[in-house]
Design a protein that fits this description.
heterodimer, A: 7-stranded mixed sheet, about 0% helix, B: mainly beta, 6-stranded mixed sheet, 5-stranded antiparallel sheet, globular
Chain lengths: ~110, ~110
């Protein structure tokens, strides 16, 4: 079972360039999330979607945008990357917004130079 | 503000028992979760507590005291594969997960 698939696994990006991180799940989960994980900090929520067609801002949304056109896909876009966006990005899903059991993708390591 | 505190790093011996503590201050409470994350990998769900008391799942147990804002994860019969970071997370009144920074557990032979 694939679960959640993220792409790319890692990427080096020049500052000012745009980038889309892809996330696809095959579990028919309603809720999806994008987190960033930085050394010494907990997972920080960037954006979330409780159901297809809706999105919401998390703790650190600035510089990022998302869309949820269907249940399975939840891409994260950096319109103009900055070095502070260097991080490991995790996509996750759950059966519903009140469910704390999240299933995570393998992560995308992004370096902005 | 909302806050989750857990030790940064712990060391234990193979075969022993270790307890990882987590204290929290959040706006409301809708459950406490423990996740395991091996280096370079994704977090995976371990346990969920919403009522006070101990939840046991094999070698792992998780305890919750809501009145004290406190939880612990107990790992018994430690194995080398238990070397990982353990993340504590609390679901607040808005059903958002608030995450601790994680406890890196080092197991020595």
């Amino acid at each position: 079972t694939a679960g959640i698939t993220q792409a790319p696994t890692s990427q080096i990006l020049a500052a000012g360039r745009s980038m889309t991180l892809r996330c696809t799940q095959d579990m028919r989960h309603n809720a999806m999330y994008w987190y960033r994980q930085d050394l010494g900090l907990g997972l920080r929520l960037i954006h979330y979607s409780n159901t297809a067609g809706t999105t919401g801002k998390g703790e650190v949304p600035d510089g990022y945008s998302v869309s949820r056109a269907n249940t399975d896909d939840f891409p994260l876009t950096l319109a103009s990357a900055v070095p502070s966006q260097t991080s490991v990005y995790f996509c996750a899903s759950s059966a519903g917004q009140t469910t704390g059991e999240l299933f995570f993708g393998e992560g995308s390591r992004l370096t902005v130079l | 503000g909302q806050n989750i505190d857990q030790p940064t790093e712990m060391t234990a011996t193979e075969g022993a028992i270790v307890q990882i503590n987590c204290t929290y201050q959040t706006s409301g409470f809708n459950g406490l979760f423990w996740y395991q994350q091996h280096a370079g990998e994704a977090p995976t769900f371990l346990s969920y507590n919403v009522l006070d008391g101990l939840e046991e799942k094999g070698r792992f147990s998780s305890f919750l005291s809501r009145s004290k804002g406190y939880s612990y994860l107990l790992l018994k019969e430690l194995q080398m594969k238990d070397s990982a970071s353990y993340l504590c997370a609390v679901m607040d009144s808005n059903y958002q997960l608030i995450w601790g920074a994680g406890t890196k557990l080092i197991i020595k032979p």
